[in-house]
Amino acid sequence: MTLWTANEAAAATGGRAQGDWAVSGLSIDTRTIAPGDMFVALKAARDGHDFVAQALEKGAGAALVSRIPEGVPADAPLLIVDDVQAGLEALGKASRARTDAKVVAVTGSVGKTSTKEMLARMLLDQGRTHAAVASYNNHWGVPLTLARMPRDAEYAVIEIGMNHPGEIAPLAIQARPHVAMVTTVAAVHLEAFENVEGIAREKAAIMEGLEPGGVAVLNADVAEAHVLRDVASDLGVSARWFGESASDYTLHSAGIEGEETVARATANGREVELHIQSLGAHFAMNALGALACVEALGADPVKAAGSLALWSPVKGRGVREAVRLESGEITLLDDSYNANPTSMAAALAVLAATPGQGRRIAYVGDMKELGPQEVELHAGLADLDAVKGIDKIHCIGPLMRALHEALPEGKRGGWYQTSAEAVPGLAGEIQGGDIVLAKGSLSMALAKIVDGIREMGQSGPNSENA
Q1: pTM above 0.85, yes or no
Q2: Sign of CA dihedral 8, 13, 18, 23
Q3: Does any domain span residue 210?
Q4: Among 34, 66, 273, 436, which is 20 to 30 Å from 10 by CA?
Q5: Is 13 labelled a binding residue?
Q6: Distance (Å, whole) CA 182 – CA 217
């Protein structure tokens, strides 16, 4: 299916189309580019113009560039613009303008990606649904997601993130959502903000992009809920609240029942039961918020609750799998993609509550971008109730030394500077029956721990995303 023709793309960007071409997708990575994609030559660690020739050799239908790169034929299919980033944003805005899709945008300190994926699954059975892939939530990820949107999409789910003040509002304005959700507010990116209240105001800025008559879905349980409420009031935005303390979408209970998390709630006056194929009360809270978004979009919430039961986490974000060792089967909880104090607490709680007779072991890595309180926040993990239910915690990274020293001696595992240093000792620390969690900020490469455990045995055919 054609996504952009040369004439359409030139009109959208004000650029010059070279050749008469049509593309079926957009890509920024030659490693994953598909034939017929438009290659977008963004400049990041490397200049994308250096890879245009390779993209065309792999079958790219065209390339978005600001100049004709060296080694590219003069008659190559190109869209030439003054600035590639601006050109991508223009394509995204044009794509958003030409669709009748109902759009929901999601932000929050924790849970953006999993909530986005939940929403996409809940809406998929009710219409053609487009959603961001992976964590494409920044200055290039949002316009790329918008520019990839099929013109006949009926629903779209856009993830919006930030690292510094002033980043969310421009992205929300590009997305122009009908519904905007804030999953939670937590001590993340504190090195760029004076306090958590500042983070709350930045998250609340997603409401600046709402379409007229749009709805905000907000977490009533966060300490900074008053900030969210004030921003909604100042903008004249209608808000729907979810959480244990909310009156609109009230979470009554959430617990692990067998192989799933079951949440019981009141949703807009109706009693509902949500079944989530992943362990953790934090998933239940975000699922309830997602249900509020579905209803605000005008979709069927009952059908959406049924579709939710078919959702499972993506790699590195709470995926559970069985790994067979000679000494027996272990349960691996792969939550290695990222970490902050809130998500780390949730992951440790999941580990402690996961059913099983074996030991519960955690490999945890540094949590980044926490500002002046970083040492205190790492050490404070030792005081979590969940720690009482965990047998051994191995710590990775200079900041996690603070947790290592704060842990009771009986629960204190090894301390390692890097994940790679911990891998050789895995076989001596893990045995059949164990339940093992791996979690840390992406730069700490806890995926090496996950891969090391997998290499100890063989993931069974009954491995599941729970």
Answers
A1: no
A2: negative
A3: yes
A4: 34
A5: no
A6: 7
